[in-house]
Amino acid sequence: MAFSAFDELAMRRALELAALGRGHVEPNPQVGAVVATSGHPAAIVGEGWHGEFGGPHAEVMALAAAGSRARAATLYVTLEPCCHHGKTPPCTDAILAAGIARVVVAAGDPFTPVAGRGLEALRRGGVTVEVGLCSAEATRLTAPFRKLLTTGKPWVIAKWALSLDGRMAAAAGQDRWISSPESRALVHELRSRIDAVAVGIGTALADDPLLTVRTAAGSAAGPRRPLRIVLDSAARLPLASRLVRTARECPLLVAVGPGAPPERTAALAAAGCEIWQGDDLDHAARTTALLRELGSRRLTNLLAEGGPHVHATLFAAGEVDEAWVFVAPSILGGAAAALDPLPDVRRLCIEDVSHPGGDILVRGTIS
């Protein structure tokens, strides 16, 4: 199937629009749509995106913007239009009512009530349907939604920072920040659009973090306030820690193991923490069980901020989907962290390299 240069331009615009819903629409997918006239030259006459969970879908927004110009026009949409009644009416009905002549879809929807049925409903209504333009980009954009739907677990982003000589932390008593203020601002922006952020008990004890979203003065806090999670097998998190002291203001889940002392878990619960207790002694298996619990709550994205033992456990369990690696242009000296031999080396499919504040940020998915 041959697509024109304008077809690709319109679909890439729809992908740009879809990304505007990131952090607002989850657990729904990010979707963008464009309506364009079919004449020569073709022109975009309507745009839309799914802006918030439970709100109008991208197709409906684009059709409303196009108005009467939608008749006999082409609709470009990044995900197969829905054909069922959910929080909103079927988009296929709106498309047929608007008189759209052709629909170009980037990727199919894996959601069972929709999968293939949306395309068939349009074809039965006399609409020309073409699928596959920019499919790789659209599938990547909706990867967290697809993972939650097909595996019942959230998309896991592992984030860490290190120096040029491979150190992940400075010596005790020194400035604990390796990365630049600009890099740290990016991490807070990321936190503001994910559902949960997790650290291990080692990081919680060493850094006494808050794990909240902090932004520059005057900027918006972001669409989401992530659930804070501490992986703490023995329930060692101090009651005086900043995490526990703020548990009633910002939700905190402490994930403990089967051998956690009952008096410690009771004290944390009394302080306002939610306690999740896994029954598996194996760290990787227990972590996978926790991810399934988060998935059952329809949490779509989890940011794992460390430390190295948490990342090692997630990698060992095969649960890391994406990585953000900050490399600072500094040499801290001393011995680098020792790594156990890797039985199964995983590679990063690099999607972007940038330079926030002089650091190097490498982002990509885990193959």
Q: Gist?
A:
The protein has helices spanning 5-19, 58-66, 91-98, 117-124, 135-141, 143-151, 181-191, 201-207, 242-245, 262-270, 283-296, 308-316; strands at residues 32-36, 44-49, 74-79, 102-107, 128-131, 155-163, 196-200, 227-231, 252-256, 274-277, 301-306, 322-328, 348-354, 360-366. The chain has 367 residues and is of the alpha/beta class. The strands form two sheets. The chain has a nine-stranded mixed β-sheet, sandwiched between helices.
Percent helix? 25-40%
Largest sheet: 9 strands, mixed
The arrangement of helices and strands along the chain is HEEHEHEHEHHEHEHEHEHEHEHEEE
How large is the share of residues in beta strands?
Answer: 15-25%
Number of strands: 14
Using the alpha-carbon principal axes, give the shape: elongated
Strand order, main sheet: write it out: 10-9-8-7-11-6-12-14-13
Task: State the end-to-end distance.
Answer: 29 Å
Structural class: alpha/beta
Mean pLDDT: 91
- Helix count from the secondary structure assignment: 12
Radius of gyration: 23 Å
Regions with little confidence, pLDDT below 50 for 5+ residues: 170-175
Descriptive report:
The protein is of the alpha/beta class and 367 residues long. It is 30% helix and 22% strand. The strands form 2 sheets. The protein has a 9-stranded mixed sheet, sandwiched between helices. Helix 8 links the parallel strand 7 (196-200) and strand 8. It is elongated. The protein starts with a helix and ends with a strand. The relative contact order is 0.12. The model is unreliable at 170-175 (pLDDT under 50).
